[in-house]
Every structure is written in structure tokens, then in C-alpha cells.
Design goal:
Elements lengths: L1 E3 L5 E5 L7 E6 L2 E2 L2 E4 L2 E4 L3 E2 L4 E8 L2 E6 L2 E2 L14 E6 L4 E5 L5
Antiparallel strand pairs: 1-12, 2-11, 3-8, 3-12, 4-7, 5-6, 5-11, 8-9, 9-10
Length: 106
């Protein structure tokens, strides 16, 4: 799990040998939040009110869900669902973002 405190790039590490799923939590308030994970831009168009969370759950490459305060919000999302690759991956996001994953082995 990684909590981002700045909009600076930071490296996250999947210490396993196989790509793994991720969950990204973006807390409000935020307008049109986006983040970069590796070469992938994950972007939501809309507002996240204070006290609410946008949760992006990546299940497998290209497959996932997006919920705003528990309600389906995939219609306002750019449909990017990248897996976290083994090794180091650069992440750039705002201070209100948490990225969660579990290392995975093949």
C-alpha cells in the first residue's frame, strides 16, 4: 500500500514475478482527478465531493470497476485498467491517492 503526499513521481515495487491487480482510492474533494501508473493515464471526469472516495479496482489487464461512494461511476472514467508489472513502476498522482496491491508470483 502506498499513500501519495505530493504530485511528484514515486516508484512502487511489485516484488513478485508476475503482474498483479491494484486498487486505487482517490479521496475528495477533487475535480477531474488523474494519475499516471507507468505509461498509463487513469482519469476520471467529474467531481469527488469532500468525504467521498472514488475507488478504481483493477481485476485483470483491461478489466475493472469504478465506484464513487459505492455507486457505479465507470461512465465518467477513461477505462484504463493496467496491471502492476513486476519490479519498479513510476506513479504520479495527487496527495489524496492511495494505491494498494499484493506482490504476485507465477
Amino acid at each position: 500500500t502506498l499513500s501519495l503526499h505530493d504530485a511528484l513521481p514515486i516508484s512502487i515495487i511489485n516484488a513478485g514475478t508476475f503482474e498483479t491487480a491494484m486498487t486505487i482510492e482517490i479521496s475528495g474533494s477533487a475535480t477531474n482527478p488523474s494519475l499516471m501508473i507507468g505509461d498509463n493515464t487513469l482519469a476520471y471526469t467529474g467531481n469527488i465531493p469532500a468525504g467521498q472516495k472514488l475507488i478504481i479496482s483493477i481485476v485483470e489487464d483491461g478489466v475493472g470497476t469504478v465506484k464513487l461512494n459505492g455507486v457505479n461511476a465507470i461512465g465518467d472514467y477513461n477505462k484504463a485498467f493496467p496491471m502492476l508489472q513486476p519490479g519498479n513502476t513510476s506513479v504520479t498522482a495527487g496527495s489524496n491517492v492511495i494505491v494498494k496491491w499484493r506482490d504476485r508470483w507465477n
